[in-house]
Amino acid sequence: MAPNEQLQAAHQNRIGGQYDEALVLYRQLIGSDSEDAEAWWGLGLSLMNTGEFDEGIEALERATSLAPQCAKYLLDLGKMQTMLGMFDEAKPVFEQVVAMAPGSKEADDAANQLRYY
User: Fold this and answer.
1) Tens digits of per-residue pLDDT, 78-98?
2) What is the DSSP string of the chain?
3) What domains appear along the chain, each with residue ranges and CATH number?
4) CA angle 43, 104, 72 (to 5 degrees)
């Protein structure tokens, strides 16, 4: 399976709630390309959904370090940090999303999150 097809299969598994299958695919992708930000993002979301919170946050942080201008990855990192009570870490992430992508869906969502601070 080509990497792009494997990534799409991993996403479909994640979206369908088949997290174990998604985790296998994301980890294979990262094993062959450790710089694949989208695979790190998907891995992070899948880990969060399986209760592996520390590893999930680490994977999301890796995704955002590889693609620092991706508002979607940053927004999801902030949301997961908020879910875990990491408010001091989440607030600047949401502020960054608002500043970097004004008028976008992600910025609107981040601004809504900031209303709780």
Assistant:
1) 999 999 999 999 999 999 999
2) --HHHHHHHHHHHHHTT-HHHHHHHHHHHHHH-TT-HHHHHHHHHHHHHTT-HHHHHHHHHHHHHHSTT-HHHHHHHHHHHHHTT-HHHHHHHHHHHHHHSTTSHHHHHHHHHHTT-
3) 1-67 (1.25.40.10), 69-117 (no CATH)
4) 10
